[in-house]
Amino acid sequence: MNDSSWGAPPQAGYWGPSDQGPVQGAGPAGPAYDAHYAQQTRPMPIVPDVPEHGGDQDDDQGTARLSGPLFRDEPFHDHPVRDEPYRDPSPSAQPYAAVPQNPEPMPDAPQPAQSQPPQKKSAGRDLGAAIGVGVGLGVVIIASLFVVKAVFVGVIAVAVVVGLWELTSRLQERKGIKAPLVPLAIGGAAMVVAGYARGAEGAWVAMALTALAVLVWRMTEPPEGYLKDVTAGLFAAFYVPFLATFVAMMLAADDGAWRVLVFLILTVVSDTGAYAVGWRFGKKKLAPRISPGKTREGLVGAVAFAMAAGALCVQFLIDDGTWWQGLLLGLVVAISATLGDLGESMIKRDLGIKDMGTLLPGHGGIMDRLDSLLPTAPVVWLLLVIFVGSG
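Now predict its structure.
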């Protein structure tokens, strides 16, 4: 094969077209050479950026120029359009230095995080409904308390029965514990009436008879689960009606209506102070594993509010009472109310529920309102008996 054949390697030192056109024996024109002769070609020189037209270099001299986004050599053949890149005649070839028609869009640059407005603290309940229900209950209590004492005893008994129903229902739903409701409801109402009529002795007798009734009533069912059912029944009898009986015992005194009113005011004020101060300033958790919403600052608020209210109430509402007795009473009420709230929170957390019921909009159930009152009742009854007598 002679040197004039098409596949002959290019002459050493050859670069660029001549005045006579394509040179015999040169490789294919264009920027890409046959891979067979890749090692015999000279490397592309580094070419400085020049404008596409009108530069100092002459396009006819075969120098490289900028065309589109990539550098390329000028073709070695006569092409109808000089600025159009060389195209391989093979069907599968792609245009040299072709720019994609629909390039993928660049991802948007991350935007700086916009500052969010501070979120307002939420009470977690419908405050409008809670206030409305609270005012309604207050009117019923005050009216029954100062009109006829026996009517208020009936209010206590109804609250006890509803509270027992809520507690036993949640125990059965969440734990499968069937505490007998019928003897509990009858015995609970009897405890309240006995405490008002016969004092502490009547309350204890009614409690003992209620416990016996629970043991016997459960015997009518299969023995499986007997121990846990009667244990839960005895706990419910002590927790709800027996503690509520001390309210009826306070009512039995000559100034019983005022004693009960002081008891209710101090408990409500304690809860309100804990909520207000804790919501506004609370940072340090009081018992996060039991009630994450309660804070130490809230407890301080409960104590301060209850002591101030206690000094005023005992001084002006209780016969022979003095302000310092009210300070001590308020301190003890704040502690007992907080412990009572934590105690029921512990029960609800064990049961996996938020509220004991849905009877009172904005409050939950009756038991959710009795949680602070029940353990506080015997404390207030005892301290008032010590301070001013049984009446």
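Strands lie at 65-67, 70-72, 285-287, 291-295.
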